[in-house]
Write a structure and sequence with these properties.
The complex is a heterodimer of chains A (about 600) and B (about 500). With about 600 residues, chain A is mainly alpha-helical. Chain A has 23 helices and four strands. Chain A has a two-stranded antiparallel sheet. Chain A is globular, with a radius of gyration of 26 Å. Helix content of chain B is about 75%, strand content about 0%. Chain B is built from 21 helices and two strands. Classes of the chains: A mainly alpha (about 600), B mainly alpha (about 500). Chains A and B meet through helix 5, helix 6, helix 22 and helix 23 of A and helix 6, helix 8, helix 9, helix 11 and helix 16 of B.
């Protein structure tokens, strides 16, 4: 029997202890964090291989409280726990070198460990009150892991906590409604149908919580702002990995356990998923700050997961969850590579970077693998999960509901989104690593082993889980609940033979290239008619993307997006401040009018009561 | 144990007189005397809470009842009183500790502590009195001391605020006194427990008294629409006093009395419960909406107090509604628990927030958030504790505010008031918004280079220590949500309100 207290509370306790150590001992704090995350990784393996069931954490001080600490160990939570452990270890490794010299990050490792413990807690809790406690704690650590040192970063931190905190409050309301309807706080005991008005209300409340955490439209707006200003290891840890895992985990719980979806709920989810894919990727296309670009992709990919899960079929759910894991791997990896570039060059803007591929080869290859994975290029993992989603949508089309009838729409949105993702990643890769090198970067070196090793491992994970997806990864990870009955045939895609073919074709291609270059030949500059070559003639690939923004139809939306018309935070703020000014007018500071209010209050109360 | 009750009044009242005389000859006599006195009272309160579950009664003068008519002046300490005693003692002590360094800027330091002791004596008196006229007398002691304390800085703004506060406080006192007159006229007694046995008929005069009481004590508790004095008074007072006013005074002399008389003196009625819940909800919404536009730190906190008191009224009011409709008592108890837990929590985090604002003002001499920023670099203790309090009041785990918010929302849904629960959620979002605004503009937003030139440093030790203790309490009070600990502190308080008629039976001894 595994002691889950070790998994959940040990990292948190160590995190609290680390508050006491002074900041000058950052290295020691980092080492402790690495050791703790290694232990939790080991434990998460143990949990993954343990039996399913509801487990109650023993509470020696107050035995009846044990019922409160009810944990649900099933295939879904085990999956999440395994990957939380994995990512925790990877990012602890990366942080060791990345964070050490960042003076602005105070108590980074404390919050890192608390985040880790709270994520395990949220993934395992069966009791919803316990769940919302851990869930809210993650919002707090998210806020504390970004440091407000200037206007923009303080605003990003504030916006993040307001949106996350708001979703937590709404989640509490949803839990209250669930309890009212079902009489239980335990997720494993609840199963409702979204037919009555209250059930729908509860469903929407829980969805808002899940969407905000994962970053789906329209509650996603904290993600791009946050990742732009946060340190890369934080962005990789929370918005890219753990928040995605937990947000989508909760969505899966809602869809698989808590509710039986009616057709309107499915339709709504698919619409949200589709719009998230397209709108976020369109925003990503026009970004110049590469962290912000990644942030919009972090939103866009959530659309795929929601689409997959919304289908409700075993294939769809498996596809959504597989995509969630793949996304966490490559998106986390992309943030790590972004952090490495930022660390070495100090630049965040694509237009200022370029030509780093030879200087930072490992980072470049890792970033390339991640970029190809996220764009859905075979044989990487991103392709396989997207392929599963496409197949899921096609299968789903044979049903009779209104959402089923519209299957072609979802399919087109998903495929189109994938193409746009590829387009924006060509921009990222060419902008940072290819093209003409800025002379000031001549002295840039590859990052230290502590930083490139996690990138390389994640890149390897992308390749392995892509090639062996059908034969090994999916049967191993997704054999629980509705998925245990089998996912149907894996489609026409045989990843291993195709991978071999791809490899062979690459080798042959390289051979031909090499043979063709056997003979020495003359190299000279291109003939440009005697005109003088100027620096401005450097046709950056970024120029091409500017044309997207100038389409009339799109320009309208980009313009409005720049004015934050689609930012729910901004809209809410406007409404609240409007109401504020209405009430402020009444508070004139004139005493006689205040006394009139009292008199009016007495009069009204007398009229009502007598 | 019973004979210890008068100490709650004797210690602060006595020390006020002693320090008025001896303080002339011994420097800093007052500030250490009140600190020691309050430390003693903290110990006494904890002892009362831990040692006895039953209601403690002390009869001043020791007169026996004549028949079933109580002649003696009663002092009653039941579960509900105990949590108020806890608030007054703990926050009072920490504020006194903070004041040791803070009041050095004033020339009349001695008078500050005399007035502070008198205010404490008044608050203790209100919560232990079992007699409505004594409640009035002590309420006036506390109020008049607080009028003087609000004006303590004698600047234009403070005098104006104090003037408004006095006028509206005077209106409140008048209404309360009128209500007491009507009560005495119709029942012939002033003892709360005895009144409860006499008042049974639901007559017009009873309703009239109820309105006078709601408005009178509502003014003291600053619920909408009787809140107008609060933002001025609480923001102009010296910061430790603001912490005391917002954290304790409005609860001890406003909310406590409202709940005491409407649960234990009047028979529960649906209309009154509805009025209390609606006024609470309106306070919650309007206070929150007003707070978010403020740029004066302490004014923002003052408006926030109105909003948070709305939460307390909402929680307890829903409990009243359920009880009045003979609904499920477990739901009512849960809702009242949420309200009282929030009352306790609010005293702690709002006290701390005002102390933090005071620390900022102490060093920077401004509380205009547009001029502040980046203070987390130079005042880490103030920034950290203020952050803890802001997170607590916004309801972010693991701080105490999260649990009371959770209980209030879930209880409101369970009682069937989903709209009210939704409003509570919306206001809690607004609350997060304005506290994050305060944090951003005060402690972050720039790199603090502006302040570094002015040599801003952390506040003196006693101020910092008091704030750290309060922040630790904000975290530690989360434990009150755990059933075993809840049964010691909160459940007796809830029971005291739930068992409405039990109060008079226990006190008179029928």
């Amino acid at each position: 029997m595994i002691d889950f207290r070790l998994l959940i509370f040990m990292p948190m306790l160590v995190g609290f202890v680390l508050f006491i150590l002074p900041e000058s001992l950052k290295i020691i704090k980092g080492m402790i964090t690495l050791i703790i995350s290694a232990i939790t990784l080991y434990y998460s393996f143990l949990v993954f291989s343990s039996d399913n069931g509801i487990s109650v954490m023993p509470c020696s001080i107050y035995p009846p409280a044990g019922n409160f600490f009810a944990l649900n160990i099933d295939g879904l939570s085990k999956l999440i726990v395994l990957f939380v452990g994995f990512f925790g270890f990877m990012y602890a490794l990366y942080s060791l070198s990345y964070v050490t010299k960042e003076k602005r990050l105070i108590s980074y490792y404390s919050y890192f460990l608390i985040t880790l413990g709270a994520s395990f807690g949220a993934a395992l809790s069966d009791n919803m009150i316990l769940f919302v406690f851990f869930w809210g704690l993650l919002g707090l650590t998210l806020y504390k892991l970004i440091k407000g040192y200037d206007e923009a970063s303080s605003s990003a931190a504030k916006k993040t906590l307001v949106l996350i905190g708001a979703s937590d409050s709404i989640l509490i309301l949803g839990i209250g409604l669930l309890f009212k309807l079902s009489g239980s706080y335990h997720m494993s005991e609840i199963n409702l149908t979204t037919t009555s008005a209250w059930a729908n209300g509860a469903f929407i409340c829980l969805l808002i919580a899940s969407f905000t955490k994962a970053g789906a439209l329209p509650f996603h707006t904290w993600v791009p702002d946050y990742v732009e200003k946060a340190p890369a290891s934080t962005s990789a840890l929370l918005p890219a990995s753990l928040d995605k895992l937990l947000g989508i985990y909760f969505l899966a719980r809602i869809i698989i356990n808590l509710f039986t979806l009616t057709s309107w709920a499915t339709l709504m989810l698919l619409i949200v998923g589709g719009i998230t894919i397209i709108a976020a990727v369109m925003m990503a296309l026009v970004q110049h700050n590469f962290k912000k670009l990644l942030g919009y992709h972090a939103v866009s990919q959530v659309g795929y997961m929601i689409t997959g899960l919304a289908l409700g079929t075993p294939l769809g759910i498996a596809a959504g969850l597989f995509h969630m894991i793949n996304n966490a791997i490559y998106k986390g990896g992309l943030f790590l590579t972004a952090g490495s570039v930022d660390k070495r060059t100090g630049k965040n803007d694509l237009s200022e970077l370029g030509g780093l591929s030879k200087l930072m080869p490992i980072t470049f290859f890792a970033a390339l693998v991640f970029a190809l994975s996220i764009s859905g290029i075979p044989p990487f993992n991103g392709f396989y999960s997207k392929w599963m989603i496409y197949r899921g949508i096609i299968d789903f089309g044979s049903g009779s509901g209104i959402a089923n009838q519209l299957w072609i729409v979802w399919l087109v949105l998903a495929v189109f989104g994938s193409a746009l993702t590829l387009a924006s990643f060509i921009k990222l890769i060419s902008g940072i690593y290819l093209g003409r090198r800025n002379p000031e970067f001549e002295k840039v070196k590859e990052v230290s082993i502590l930083m490139w090793l996690p990138q390389a491992i994640l890149a390897l994970a992308c390749i392995v889980s892509g090639i062996f997806a059908a034969t090994w990864v999916i049967p191993k990870l997704f054999n629980f609940g509705p998925l245990s009955s089998g996912l149907g045939d894996p489609g026409m895609w045989q990843s291993q033979p195709v991978s071999i073919l791809i490899l062979v074709s690459l080798v042959v291609g390289f051979l031909i290239f090499w043979m063709g270059n056997m003979k020495k030949h003359r190299r000279s500059d291109s003939f440009i008619g005697g005109e003088k070559l100027q620096d401005e003639l450097n046709f950056s690939p970024l120029e091409f993307y500017k044309t997207i923004g100038s389409f009339k139809f799109l320009a309208f939306f980009y313009d409005k997006a720049k004015k934050k018309w689609f930012d729910i935070y901004h809209i809410g703020k406007g409404i609240i401040l409007g109401l504020n000014s209405v009430f402020s007018i009444c508070h004139t500071g004139i005493l006689s009018s205040y006394i009139m209010w009292v008199v009016a209050g007495v009069a009204i109360l007398l009229i009502i009561l007598i | 144990m019973n004979s210890l009750i008068p100490l709650f009044i004797v210690v602060p009242l006595g020390s006020a007189f002693i320090m008025a005389i001896l303080g002339r000859f011994i420097k800093d006599f007052g500030k250490y005397l009140i600190n020691l006195g309050l430390l003693f009272l903290v110990g006494l309160t904890v002892k009362l809470i831990l040692n006895s579950q039953e209601t403690l009664i002390y009869k001043v003068g020791g007169f026996a009842n004549a028949g079933d008519i109580p002649i003696a002046i009663y002092m009653v300490v039941d579960g509900f009183t105990k949590i108020l005693l806890l608030i007054i003692s703990v926050v009072g002590f920490l504020v006194a500790l903070y004041s040791i360094s803070y009041t050095k800027q004033y020339t009349a330091e001695r008078k500050f502590y005399i007035l502070y002791s008198l205010m404490l004596a008044g608050m203790y008196g209100v919560v232990v009195s079992g007699d409505i006229f004594n409640i009035y007398v002590f309420l006036e002691i506390a109020s008049i001391a607080s009028y003087a304390l609000v004006a303590f800085g004698i600047q234009k703004q403070q005098l104006e605020a104090s003037f408004k506060y006095q006028i509206l406080g005077g209106v409140a006192s008048m209404l309360i006194l009128m209500g007491i007159g009507f009560i005495y006229w119709s029942t012939g007694t002033l003892n709360l427990a005895d009144i409860a046995t006499q008042l049974t008929a639901d007559t017009i005069i009873m309703k009239f008294i109820a309105v006078l009481m709601i408005v009178g004590f509502g003014l003291k508790a600053a619920i909408f629409p009787f809140h107008a004095w609060l933002p001025d008074a609480h923001s102009s007072a010296p910061s430790p006093i603001s912490a005391m006013l917002s954290g304790v005074l409005i609860k001890a002399i406003g909310i406590y009395v409202i709940f005491r008389i409407f649960f234990n003196m009047f028979a529960l009625s649906y209309e009154i419960s509805m009025v209390i819940t609606v006024l609470g909800t309106l306070s919650m919404i309007i206070g929150g909406l007003l707070a978010i536009g403020q740029w004066d730190m302490k004014r923002l906190l003052a408006y926030s107090s109105i909003s948070q008191m709305g939460y307390v009224f909402l929680g307890v009011g829903i409990g009243m509604l359920v009880l009045a409709q003979k609904g499920n008592p477990a739901v009512a108890a849960f809702s009242i628990l949420g309200g009282l837990f929030h009352l306790l929590n609010h005293a702690m985090f709002k006290g701390l927030l005002f102390l933090g604002a005071g620390a900022v003002e102490y060093r920077t001499e401004t509380r205009d958030m547009k001029q502040l920023g980046g203070l987390s670099e130079v005042m880490p203790v103030t920034a950290g504790t203020s952050m803890a309090a802001s997170l607590a009041i916004s309801g972010i785990p693991p701080f105490n505010g999260f649990f009371s918010k959770l209980i209030i929302i879930i209880a409101a849904v369970q009682a069937g008031y989903v709209t009210l629960a939704l409003l509570a959620v919306v206001v809690s979002i607004i609350t997060i918004g304005y506290f994050m605004k305060m944090q951003k503009y005060t402690f972050f937003n720039n790199d603090g280079s502006f302040w570094k030139n002015k040599k801003i440093k952390e506040v003196p030790f006693t101020m910092a220590f008091a704030m750290i203790l309060m922040a630790a309490l904000c975290l530690g009070m989360s434990l009150l949500a755990i059933p075993t600990i809840r049964d010691i502190v909160l459940t007796p308080a809830v029971d005291a309100l739930m068992e409405t008629v039990q109060y008079s039976k226990t006190v008179i001894g029928i």
